[in-house]
Specification:
Helix content is 46%, strand content 20%. It has 247 residues and is an alpha/beta fold. Helix 2 (20-42) packs across helix 7 (176-196). The protein starts with a helix and ends with a strand.
């Protein structure tokens, strides 16, 4: 597990001396204008169903205050609005992504219930035990220090609360495994570079997925971060996974 975390933390978008955190912020600033389009395009829109399924896990809990970490342009946070919470706060290190997310808030008339802030997942600006639920969608792969980020999520979550993590994983069975990796490693970077104009961003994506400690390995990191228990639910043949962790 330690080796997996080190491998994950070492994967960066660019070959520069900047920290992973700085590089990730720069990358998402660069691709923010095309991010939503490419997200839905590359997944054929299936990512929307993944978010719906993940948020439904919280339905019975009826969380009143939700934190969405690495919120990006806010797709997971907006899906969480279906739970009718009193407040959702989204945090992200990319101002470019947050700017688009805030425009969505204003367009949908949700400014009284939703707030997006520039914030670091490894140093969240909130008191202990602040939120009924914490969500992360395709964001934990980008943490500079995976364990530190998960410890912060555990810290700000109220006792008995749930953290929901939606993240890419790796299909294990033929033929989906072969098709997926060919698409992920060759086709996606080619189209991503052409549309987003950032040649590194969509090459970093498959590298970060390959390095990520998924399944039982990720659940072991959640346990080390202080969560009492967790489980994993794979979706679409293992292309993505939904993790639920309890404090």
């Amino acid at each position: 597990m330690e080796k997996d975390m080190m491998k994950h933390d070492a994967v960066t978008p660019y070959e520069t001396t900047d920290s992973k955190k700085q590089q990730v912020a720069e990358m998402f600033n660069n691709i923010s204008g095309s991010y939503d389009f490419l997200n839905h395009f590359f997944s054929l829109g299936i990512d929307k169903q993944w978010r719906k399924k993940a948020i439904k896990i919280l339905k019975q809990d009826q969380p009143k205050e939700i934190l969405d970490v690495a919120t990006g342009t806010g797709d997971f946070a907006f899906e969480a609005m279906k739970l009718e919470p009193e407040k959702i706060i989204g945090v992200d290190i990319s101002d470019g992504m947050l700017e688009i997310g805030r425009k969505k808030i204003n367009k949908r008339g949700l400014s009284e219930k939703m707030t997006f802030l520039n914030g670091d997942s490894e140093n969240l600006p909130f008191e202990d035990d602040s939120f009924d639920a914490v969500t992360v969608s395709f964001g934990v792969r980008n943490f500079q220090n995976l364990l530190a980020g998960l410890k912060e999520i555990q810290r700000v979550l109220k006792p008995g609360g749930k953290a929901i993590v939606l993240e890419f994983s790796k299909p294990k069975h033929f033929p989906l495994k072969q098709v997926y990796f060919g698409y992920f490693k060759y086709i996606m970077p080619l189209f991503g570079k052409a549309i987003s104009k950032d040649k590194a961003a969509y090459s970093y994506l498959p590298k970060s997925v390959l390095a990520f400690p998924e399944g039982k390995d990720f659940e072991a990191v959640l346990a080390k971060a202080g969560f009492e228990r967790s489980n994993q639910q794979t979706v679409t043949g293992g292309i993505a996974s939904i993790y639920t962790a309890w404090k």
